[in-house]
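User: I'm putting together notes for a lab meeting next week and I want to include a structural view of one of the chains we've been expressing. I don't have a solved structure, so I'd like a prediction I can at least talk through. The sequence is below, exactly as it appears in our construct file.
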Amino acid sequence: MSTAAFIVAAVVIVAILIVAAWLYSTRQRSHTNQRSQQLRDQFGSEYDRTVTEKGDSRSAEKELTARQKRVSQLTIRPIAADEGVRFSDEWRAAQGNFVDDPSAALRDADALVGRVMDARGYPEGDFEQRFADVSVDHPTTLGQYRTAHEIGLRHAEGHASTEDLRQAMVNDHALFTELLVDQPAVETVSGTAVPAAVPV
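Assistant: Thanks for the context. Below is the predicted structure for the 200-residue chain, given as structure tokens.
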């Protein structure tokens, strides 16, 4: 092979390698961007909160992907219709107690949300772990639930007003309702599984 032919062959091989590397890199970026968009779509504002907490999108996406993997190994089940009715009755009782004893009403509501999580199959754990697990399937109401939890902590320290407690009840109600209604088994109970709003 002549020197000129060797140089041409080497240039062609290098060009092919450069194009292949560029195509691979483009495909990887596209896959990464697509995965990022899927996580943004699934987690909504929880995606942004996790990015802020972790400091960068790569770490946040690793965390959110780990949550998905953990929850995929759980047996999350619908609430039976009779359970949905019972839980709804308990919510109305807690709600009805709000005017006379806001603290007890909030405590009962928060405990009830925990029992509904148990019934759905989310494992018990500390607040952050449970929050992370539920965020996979219910990201839209998790911000409200976190706010309700923070109000509860402030209340325990004597730094929450009655209006704060009312807002916490409203926020707990959002997740409570979603946990009950976000499934066919409860929807068959016409009008029963969706409790009325908390009194203002």
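A couple of points you could mention at the meeting. The radius of gyration is 25 Å. Residues 81-187 form one domain.

User: Perfect, that's what I needed.
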